Amino acid sequence: MTGAKKLYIKTYGCQMNVYDSERMAEALGGQGYVETDTPDDADMILLNTCHIREKAAEKVYSELGRFKGLKAEKPDLKIGVAGCVAQAEGQEIMRRQPLVDLVVGPQSYHRLPELEAKARGGEKALDTDFPEEDKFDHLKARPKAKRGPTAFLTVQEGCDKFCAFCVVPYTRGAEVSRPVARILDEARDLVERGVREITLLGQNVNAYHGQGPDGADWSLARLIWALDGIDGLERIRFTTSHPNDMTDDLIEAHGTCAKLMPYLHLPVQSGSDRILKRMNRAHTAESYLRLIERIRAARPDILISGDFIVGFPEETDRDFQDTLDLIEAVNYGYAFSFKYSTRPGTPAAERDQVDEAVKSERLYRLQDLLTRQQRAAQEAMVGQEVGVLFEKPGRLQGQMVGKSDHLHAVHVSDSDLRPGDLRRVRITDSTPNALGGRLA
Ligand code: SAH
Ligand code: SF4
Ligand code: F3S
Description:
Layout: E1 5-11, H1 15-29, E2 33-35, E3 44-49, H2 54-65, H3 68-73, E4 78-82, H4 83-89, H5 92-96, E5 102-104, H6 112-120, E6 125-127, H7 135-138, E7 150-154, E8 156-157, H8 168-171, E9 176-177, H9 180-192, E10 197-201, H10 220-228, E11 235-239, H11 248-256, E12 263-265, H12 273-278, H13 285-298, E13 303-310, H14 317-330, E14 334-339, H15 356-379, E15 385-393, E16 399-404, E17 409-413, E18 422-431, E19 434-439
Parallel strand pairs: 1-2, 1-3, 3-4, 4-5, 5-6, 7-10, 10-11, 12-13, 13-14, 17-19
Antiparallel strand pairs: 8-9, 15-16, 15-18, 16-17, 18-19
């Protein structure tokens, strides 16, 4: 009997990798693979990797090492590395870990079926090109599998900004926007399959400038308004944005488009103008603060989240204090923060590094402040009525969990609730990582 082959995919890194993993599973579905949630019974293991910080990249090699036993037991098992480590290190991965059969970079996923066949034939398969064709055009979904209530949709890839610390422009290549018609088709298809909330993805999603049906380049705001017209699609989000691409029409949409949710991830990285300049961010702390003011004027209840790097080369105590001051001024609802990690090939890697102990101490203080702001933002929701899109059962009997308009996790106990229900909820309590409430 020739049963279906089993595919185990493990995804690291950002949401774009989550989206890509879904597309890769679909592409290999055409080769007779079905997904499994354990590597133990897999015929193919695919690690979709992240190169953003050293730890993320190193994790891949320790994970690969753990598959040695499996491969010894099952010589037919094929092991592949996809994603940003694949792009950054290419052939080197196979040299360092000979049990790897296949390496594929993020722009070549549509070539996965050929690469898989080559690996099956016993050859090493490698593709880290930046081909001319649009991989997503060649990655067609399998017919109409039912979906959960939320989905990611990549609309833009790559980055031309070259922040001095960042590998993304090298691993994902130059900025490319997908055409409007393709995105709308995909969105309609997702909605037919049960999706009610779509998060538009891009490394710089607000730099989106895809070709519209009229031949003109459309902005992200224009794309959002077109999605707004799709019946059955209830919520629209987008991530990640760059401060310099927050255009007037996009700010305005936050005030006028009811489906566009009141949450904006707008990384600033540092509050020191000197460091921002050295980072090549091309904006100042002041211009960022003015921008936040304008966004809040358009949508007063919007929740702002951010990314921060501490211990960027040459960062002094004074620079770090500027970052804390900016955080105080903005008052974040959510944040991600990292110690600067040296990335080979990026300009900042060559500069004077900050002591590891200093980085740790700064990160601790920064996270302490951000956690307090995050808790306060959550507690401020108590007593309010918010929209909640329910996604799955909670841990307790009869409990459902969903996300509020402001992206807080919300638990409600009500046995009539089903995944995909969008309901008004009165928030009654706040625990460290979630809110509780009852149907309004
Ligand atoms: N395109 C997005 C995010 C890209 S990576 C943006 O421009 O905001 C996600 C986050 O990882 C970044 O915002 C940054 O905070 C962090 N990051 C990127 N490179 C890093 C490095 N070398 N060390 C530590 N953190 C890093
Ligand atoms: Fe990296 Fe900067 Fe591009 Fe974001 S904008 S992906 S941080 S280079
Ligand atoms: Fe990581 Fe690549 Fe995303 S480096 S953060 S997986 S774009």
